[in-house]
Specification:
659 residues, six-stranded antiparallel β-barrel, six-stranded mixed sheet, alpha+beta, 33 strands, binds guanosine-5'-diphosphate, 17 helices
Amino acid sequence: ITNDYEKRKLAEQRATRRLKGESGEKGKSEGKKRELKLTVSRALSDQIEARTRSLASLKRAKLKENRELTKEEIQENLKPVKRDVNIPEAITVRELANRMAEQSSNVIKFLFGMGVTVTINQTLAADTAEYLVKEFGHNPIRETKAEEIIQKIKESRSENLKNRPPIVTVMGHVDHGKTSVLDVLRSANVVSGEFGGITQHIGAYQIEHESNKITFIDTPGHAAFTEMRARGSKLTDVVVLVVAADDGVKPQTIESIKHAKAAKVPIVVAINKCDLPDADPQKIKNQLLEYELIAEDLSGDTLMVEISAKTKKNLDKLVESIVLQAEILDLKTDYESKATGIVLESKIDTGRGAVATVIVTSGTIKKGDFFVSGLKWGKVRALINDKGQNIDEAPPSSPVEILGINGAAKSGDDFIVFDTEKEAKTLSANRAEENKTGGNPLAFATQDSAFTDKSATELNIIIKSDVHGSSEAIKNAISQITHDEVKPKIILSDIGMVTETDVTLAKASNAVLIAFNVKPSKEAKKLAENEKIKISSYNIIYEVLDYIKSRMSGLLAPDIQETISGTAQILEIFKVSGTGKVAGSKVTEGEIASGANARVIRDGAIIYTGKISTIFREKDQAKQVSNGQECGITLKDFIDFQKNDIIEAYSTTSTERTV
Ligand code: GDP
């Protein structure tokens, strides 16, 4: 500024000098020129004055500052700011440094001082991050894990259980009347006068029959059902299998049965088109025997109803059978708790923004609730039921359109209500983060009923083969493989090429998919590639068996043998510059090597398990120390050792087990 000021001053002097020198000149324009020059000079001096003023005010401000700040105040100002730092389950060094507003290099240096070498993109566990945040003088706040929050919600739901309506999916072969059945059930309900005939398609609807409610998923077909399952969402309590009485059991009928069975969902059979002259319901029942669906009149326990969607014959009986099946399932949930649900479909609506159709699986969704759905979150702005009415609350099993989500959810996404906006925001941010780092945040969509998770000790198998003979032979051979801890389980064995449905089923059931002497269809191959499902092709049975055995072996936990190589007792704790805390120890048994697995034992309890980081003999690093020697030891990610702790170094050998 001063420099500038000088320059201006010189310029002004020059201008004044020129003005003086030129004052003797004659001519018409002289007066004008003079005027102009005077203006210039005035403008310049104005500028200079302004500068001088601003300089002075700067000086004054500085003086004032120094005068008013006491020594204590200056010291206070120099103190680092203590920040609240949120710590998720895993965080990169860069992000942690950002959240603390510290330089990443300082964090790396600090960790290096503890004997841990990290890069800026390395992910730190929450414990380590929490420790660092404290060391940097900030206040760590552990974020609750998504699963933990959900677990808490679930636990709070174990009281006040009341029955909830069943959620029903209609399946069956094309043209057997799925859509007709869904339509007629919906309109029967509407015609009863309750809702004035207005229906709105939101992908699901609810009917009421003698004070029993039933929710129907209004998208017939298998794709929706299996896709939802493949995504981990479990949204069906009862499958209604529609079979045309004049046509019989067809490929998609069989497929539906397999899907329902794989998902352990009970089936109610609707034998449709019984109004037709060539309808033969008895034939259908006989055909279904082969698929272990045994009608009550054949002394089985599968509910079968002979209906006509056209004449509406026995539709009430069908509804009663569904109610009965639901009673057997004893579907209960807590109506009062914070709601959870599953997204059925979702769209961006011009004017209304993102809209998600959700089926409530437990609790009650209320207007104003904060929620997370998949990676999105929001506040329930409006709830619209299947009749297009605005409502304030959506109880369990009801389908409802929700406005207020901050983006399009995906069908199959979960929907969880939280107490506060902050919780919802944090969880959705965590999920987005987990999603980035390759986790699968959507794996925990839940529904209490209807589906139980496959046990880890069963290997699900799907076999497609060329002829009945080979499929039987493979089945028999597989059933001979026995093991105490893992079992093979054939969930589908069929003849014909591998179809898209097989691939979807393999994904949903986490099954191995074997093609014996058959090829996958083009679509199936493509889907398998996209979904990363391996289709294993074989033409020799014992090779199939070898493969299955190897896959079963993969499910066995390996045998772990442990050998303790040495123990040391901590005698004293040192602080070494550049290294941090070092445990001054004496080896009391065997030997301890750097890099070895180690644990710290205090008063008989293991307080740390990890690795030996470095060993010092005198001032130098050593590879190992033996019985009787004294040394300094640092451990990986752990410095909380105390005098008299025991450090135990050990090695493990793991032997893979085979079936
Ligand atoms: P979807 O493909 O399984 O959804 O079958 P639709 O509901 O579209 O029905 C296929 C055809 O069967 C349509 O032409 C319906 O009118 C007819 N249909 C459905 N139910 C009945 C019934 O109970 N009786 C008769 N006669 N026809 C029916």
